[in-house]
Amino acid sequence: MSEKVLQKANWSSFVQALADARELWFPVKDGPIYKFAPYSGDVDAGLEEYAYSSVPPKAVVLPQTETMFLYQVGDKETSLPEEKKEKVVLGARPCDARAMDIVDRVFQWDEDDPYYLENRNKTAVIGLACNEPFVNCFCTSLDGSPGSTQGLDVLMVDLGDKYYLRSVTDKGSRILGDAESALEDASGEGSQAEEIIKEAEGKIKRSIDTEGIREKLEEGWEAPLWDEVSRACLGCGACTFLCPTCHCFDIQDEVEGFDGRRCRMWDSCMFGEYTLHTSGHNPRPSRKERTRNRISHKYRYYVEKFDKIACVGCGRCITSCPVNIDILDILSRVKEEL
Amino acid sequence: MVDLETIRKKAKEIVSREDVKHLIGWRKGTFGYRVTPYWVEAPEDAEELVYSPLCNTNLATSLTLAEKLPLPKGQEPDRRKTALLVRGCDSRAVVQLLTERGVDREQVVLLGLPCRGVVDLRKLKDSYPEDNEVADAEWKEDKIVLNVSGEKKEIPREEVLDDHCLVCRYPNPVEADETLGEKVEPWAEESHPGVEELENASFDKRWDFWEKEFERCIRCYACRNACPMCYCEDCILDRLNPTWIYRSNNYSENTAFHIARAFHLVGRCVSCGACERVCPAGIPLGKINQKLVKEVREKYEFEPGTDPEGVPFQASYNPQDQEDFIL
């Protein structure tokens, strides 16, 4: 573990050093939102204004569309897309890194998923602790914290005129080594960082006691609650696509002229065509079953398999829902009514 | 305008009727400024109804969104009516649905409400950040009164109103069984904000503009699903055989999706702005739809959702229609 300090005046050289060593992904302002995109040489782009990315950095390791292999129509040969590069994600929020840790388990549970794992193993994550939690943050209810290091390689804390950086993994130490010229050794900033994180924890206002939710979800399968909470649902994919732990995908062939590719893309259990059978039978025929699935997957099925809740409390599903379907409201009703 | 007690009282009366299943309105959401569509099942539920500039969903969508699953053997379908709170734009959506026979007039009860425009939450939150505490907003003549964490503040409504509402010419319902309160005097001349600016830009500039916007699309289809006019049971976007539009998220496919949606809204879009308000990527979808609204209005003098007895635009061929722009 190494502890370093980055003066904000040295920001550009730090970013350049990271970008020289690996493909650097960075939260970029795109219209009114932030999303992670490859760094394109604009070193002025700092993290000062950035609160969180609307599209989580899961998109770096599990891209919305990923080519698995390429082929020519009528030809039996296939070819692989370009090999993935070593990447570093700068400025991921700690909850998003914890989410990667959750998704990791799925992709190496029964079979290893080579596409995801190659991407993931080649990606290092530098997290930025949250000084000012967002309106719908509730990470502290799920063993998280604005300064959690789970899933991170380096934790970075904003101390005002400088950042405090601490490596969490060997990979993280190597990354700090690559950018050594821009960094100074830390001298006591660690405790200042701890205080900031503690203070930020106190600013989180929303919460849920998760005790007993898994059992309630099992018992209350047919409860009228599900009709009520799903009623306003439009059936769009905003909650799932923007969720850092949602990982469902579909696989399709796409052909242009004679150029074919097999690719996989994010899928959403809130869509009507999700797991729709060839026969026309739909195991989740209405938004009621789909909403129940979204909640149950995170708070029951995943828990049964991995003994861990597949939600990190980032609040994106709450913030992005066009009709204010609020997972905390649903969960507290599950606890009270089921 | 109209006071809340009058709305609640009337709503109670309506849901007490034997031929009415429920009334759809709005109630306070779970945090900040949020408001959510609300189904009033029993008279006492009506106490939770709210009506404010924060009611930013088009309720006509809930008419076509209702799922009709096969009933268990021997069970009779519920044939009672659905009652709906409608403002100008909601009622225009219902009227358009009526002309398309997407909705049966006998099956809906429309309770009309005058409206002074709804806020664009992005604009509002930028200037007046919300907290977890429930925040409120109400109309006061041409102003909006905000109430955030107990602090009241009066602001000009132009500052935070949705762009569509700023130029709305139908603040009163065009169709309703009964309209409550006093009518609102329309405040805007016909105009299509943001459209002229793009029309005057060069082809390359327009291309660059939309490339940047569509590249950001995450294909969650919130725009389609929030739109009262998007109610095809078999949507072109969901088709797999043939796959008209690939699921790949890239500029090309995203553009194909948005063009397909725009084409399907020609002469049908009622300018409620719901699509743009729900977009989690902040794509200015209104600019596309307003361009089409403008074209249809200028070339055919047609305005959708204004005549319950009318014929849908795309089914109203007239030999006198302009055709000088057809290649």
Model description:
The complex is a heterodimer of chains A (338) and B (327). Chain A has 338 residues and is of the alpha+beta class. Chain A has helices at 11-21, 58-61, 94-106, 114-121, 170-178, 189-203, 213-219, 225-230, 238-241, 287-306, 316-320, 327-337; strands at 3-7, 23-30, 33-38, 65-72, 78-79, 87-92, 123-128, 154-158, 162-167, 184-185, 249-256, 259-266. In chain A, the strands form 2 sheets. An 8-stranded mixed beta sheet of chain A has the order 3-2-6-7-8-9-1-10. Chain A has a 4-stranded antiparallel beta sheet with strand order 5-4-12-11, with no helix packed on it. With 327 residues, chain B is of the alpha/beta class. Chain B has one domain (4-315). Chain B has 11 helices and 8 strands. Classes of the chains: A alpha+beta (338), B alpha/beta (327). The interface between A and B is large, with 44 and 45 residues.
Short descriptors:
heterodimer; A: about 350 residues; alpha+beta; 2 domains; 8-stranded mixed β-sheet; 4-stranded antiparallel β-sheet; 12 strands; globular; B: about 325 residues; alpha/beta; 5-stranded mixed β-sheet; 3-stranded antiparallel β-sheet; 11 helices; 8 strands; about 15% strand
- Please give the share of residues in helix of chain A: 25-40%
Total number of distinct structural domains of chain A: 2
The end-to-end span of chain A amounts to 46 Å
Helix content of chain B: 25-40%
Described by strand count, sense and barrel closure, the largest sheet of chain B is: 5 strands, mixed
Mean of pLDDT of chain B: 94
Which geometry of chain A do the CA atoms define? Answer: globular
